[in-house]
Amino acid sequence: MSKNFSRRDFVKNTALAVAGIPILKNSLSEANKDKLSKTKFIPDKPNALSWVDGDTPALQNGTAFGVPWPKGKHAKGTEFKLMDAQGKNVPVQTWITATWPDGSIKWTGHAVSGSNGVSDHYQIQPGKPARPDTAVQVKETSGEVHVNTGKMKCLISKKGENLITSIERNGKKVFENGRLEGTKQDSPEAGSPQIHFTSDISDIEVEQDGPIRAVIKIDGTHKFEEGRTWLPFSVRLYFHADSDAIRMVHTFVFDGDENEDFISSLGVKFEVPMHDELYNRHVRLSGPQNGIWAEAIQGLTGLRRDPGEEVRKAQIAGKAVPPPSTWDRRVSSRIHWIPRWGDYKLSQLSANGFKVEKRTKKGHSWIPSAHGGRSSGAAYIGGASGGVAFGMRDFWKLHPTQIDIRNAIDDKAEVMIWMWSPDAQPMDIRFYHDGMGQDVSGPLDIEPVDGVEPSVPDTPYAKQLDALRITYEDYEPGFGTPYGVARSTDLFLRICDGTPSNTFLGNFARSVEQPPQLSVQPKDFLNAGVFSNMWGLPDRSNKKLSELEDRLDWSIQYYDDQVDQHHWYGFWDYGDFMHTYDTDRHMWRYDVGGYAWDNSELSTDMWLWYTFLRSGDMKAYRLAEAMNRHNRDVDIYHQGRFAGLGTRHNVQHWGCSAKQLRISTCMNRRFHYFLTTDERTGDVLHEVLEADRQLANINPVRKLPGQPFKVEESRMGVGTDFGSAAANWLTEWERTGDPKVKRWIEQAMRSIGESKWGFFTGSFAYDVDTKKMTEPDNPEPRASHLSTMFGLPELCAELIVLIDVPEFKEAWLNYCRLYNAPQEVQQEALGSDYRDPGFVQSHSRITAYAAAMTNDEELAKRAVPELIQDEWGVHANAPRMQKSLSTLRIEGPESINPVDEAPWVSTNDSAQWGLAAIQVSALVGEHVK
Hints:
By secondary structure, this protein is α+β, with helices and mostly antiparallel strands. Among the domains are: about 30-125, no CATH class; about 135-275 and about 380-430 and about 485-520, Beta-galactosidase, Chain A, domain 5, CATH 2.70.98; about 435-475, no CATH class; about 580-685, no CATH class. The chain has 21 helices and 37 strands. The chain has a 20-stranded antiparallel β-sheet that branches. Helix 9 (about 605-615) runs antiparallel to helix 10, helix 17 packs across helix 19 (about 845-855) and helix 19 packs parallel to helix 21 (about 905-925). The longest helix is centred in the middle third of the chain and has 23 residues, at about 545-565.
C-alpha cells in the first residue's frame, strides 16, 4: 500500500467500490513489471491483455479468457472489441459470465481464434467487434451435429460409440470414427483377462455456436459388449473460425467397485485415411523441448544403395519424393524389399522416462528406437498430402500415458491416445490399508503410559480418534472410497494439408503441453473490485514490506521446485501439493495419514490465485491452474453417497473419512472459471450449488463429543459450513442472477447477524430444504481456528459489499475485532468461560480488515505484530529449525534424489501466512514497518 493511502481512504473506496472506484491504489514496482512482461512490452492501458507465460507463443489453437468489470461500468448488451498490438480490430466472441447485483456486467468471457495469428498483446474495450472472414457454423439434425470452421467440416454423432464420425478438409476425409475405448480386469495382477468397453453417447448439447467459437458437449457412458455401462463421461469439443484445430476435453467419473474393477487402459481412438505411397507416409513423435522423432513408413535413407539426394531430402522433410522413375534403379527396382513399419508407440510410464518403439506389423517384435525423459505428448500421422497432428496436455505429468499408431501401412491408420497406458500396471485405487482394527464399536484397548490412562472419549469412534492422534488420519470404514471421483484430460487435434515441419510440430507440441492463456493485468483485477476488497498490489515502499514481498515470491519458487524435485505427478496426483515435510527422511510425508496430499487444506488454492492476481506471477498461475484442475475433479465427489463433498487431506486423495463442504467449496475454484471461462470448472461450480444438503446425511463433527446437536440433526457451522455453502450460492447468483439463491444468502446472513453471539455462535440447526438456520437454545460463545481458514474472510468481505445486511456486517466486524483481542477483552465481551482457539498469525488479516473498515488505528497497530511477531509461522518442529529464505541441498546417500530443503516450511503455514501477508499489507500497509 502506498504511504499516502490511509485507512479512511480505504473505507471510502470500499463504500464506492461497487461503483467501480479502485479499492487500493498501489502500483507494480518496476522490477515486477519486468517480471510480468518478460521481453514483451505491455501497454499501460485499461484491460491490456498479455500472455500469462510472458513470451508470445509461436502458435495457439484458439483460446478463451475472462475480463472483470467494475460495477455499473457496462450494461448487458454492451459489445466489446479486441485490438491487437498493431491496433487492428481482431474478431472476438463475447459472452457474460457474471453480473453485479444491479445487473451490470461483472465478468465477460471472450474467445479468439488461432487463425488470426498471435499478437504480443491485446486490449479489450467497448466497441463493435470485427467479424471473421469465415464464421464457424453449426447445424443440427435429428441424428448429427455439423460444424464447419471454413477450413474443415466435422460430423458429430448424437448416438452410438463414435463421438466424431468424420472430419473433412478440401473435400477429403482425414479423420474417421473418433471414440473412447478402454479395458478393465477383475484383478490388478498382470495377465488377468481383460474386458473391452467403448463410448456410448446419451446426450449432446450445442453450448456455443459461433461466430468465433463453437462448443459441443457430449455426455455418455462407457459400455461393455454384454451391456453393462460404467464410467460416465462428458466430452467437450471446441472449434474456432477459419481454424483446422479442435480441442477435446474429456472427463470421466469412476463409478465402479475399486475392489473388482481395475482399469487397464483408457483412451481416445480414431482412424486416419492414408492416401500416399508408403514412402510418402510419415510419423512424427515429440520428445522433450523441441525434440521431434521423424520417420517415414518406408524409409529411403541409410540404404546400401542411394536413391538420390533429392529423394532423401524430400523424405526427411516430409514432402512428396520425386517419382521412382527418377531414382537410382538399384533402389527403385528393389523397393519391395525395404521393410514397411506399420505400428508405432511412445509410452510414458513415469514422469522421467519415455521410449519409442516400432514394428512392421502385429505378430512381430517391437524394435526400440528412442528413449528420453519427458515427452511433450504430440504426434502426427499421415502423408505428404495431409494427415492429423494430435497431442495430450500434461502428457508426462499425468503418466502412465501412451501414443499408439497402428496399421499405418493399410488404407487407414489407427491412433490411440492413451490416458492410461495399456503397457502400465492396471489402475489400483483401493484404500491403502485394512483399517488396522479401527472399527466403530468395541472398547479402546490401549495400555496406560506412565500410569496415565489415555484421554480418549468413550464413544463409538474412540479407536479412530485415538489413531488420529498418531497419524493425523481420520479413518472410518467405507469412507475411503474413490466411487464418484473424476479426472479430466485435454487433447488437441490439428488437421494438416501436408506433413508438418519439425518446427511447426514443435510449436504445436508446446501449445499442447502448456496452452497459451491471455489475462488482463493485476491493476485491472483490482480496479474491478472482484474477489473481495482485502488484497492489493505488491508494495515495497519500506524495508519490512519488501521483506514480506520477498518471502511471498520465495514461497512460490520453492513450491514450484518441490513439485519437480519430489515428483508430484501422476494420473490421480498431478496438481496437488503435499501437506507436511519429514525432516528426518528428507521427503514430504507421503505415507503418513493426514500429512500427505493437501487437498485444498487451509486455502492453498486461494493463496496461489491471489498471488497471481496481484503480481501476475506466471509460476503462481500455472501452479494454481494445475491445482484447480486436479482438486475440482479428484478431491470432490461427483456422484454417489458423498456427491458434492470433498475429502480432507490423506495418503490418498479420497482416503480420509472427513467428507466436507470446506474442500468442495467454490471459493477455491471460482478464480479459475472467471479467469479462463473453463466450462468443466463451471460444471463443478454448479454441481455443488446445493452440496449443503449433505449436512442432513453426514455430520462433519459426528465424532467429536460435546456438540450442541445430536448426530442425526442437520447443523451448519458458521465457519467452514456457512462459508462454503454461501460461496457456492454466491457463485451461482453472480453467474445466473437467480433471485432464489440470493434469498438463501440473505436469509443466512440475517440468521447469523441476529443471533446472540453472531459468528461466535458456533453452529446453527439447519433445514437443508428451506436453508433456514436456527440459533440453538442457550448458546455458549465459541470459535474454531478453522472457521476463517477456508475462505470465510474473503467471502464475508464480498458479501458485505454486495448485499446490505447491517447486522451481518456488524457481527463479522465484531468477530474480526475480538478473535485476536487480549484475553481480558475477549472475556469481557464473551464471558470468562470463552477459550481463545489461537492461531494468531492466520487471523491477523481479519484484525486488519476490521481496522480498515472502521478506521480504527489501534486495531491496525495490533494487526501488524500479530502477523510479524512470529513471521515464520506456527509449525510443530519450528523451534529447532533455522528459518531463512534459503534452502539446504540434500543429496545421496541421504536422499534418493537431490532435493532443496527448507525444513520449516509446511503447506498449511505457507498458504495461511501468504494470505495474511497479502491482506495485512494491503489493508494496513502504512503500519507495516
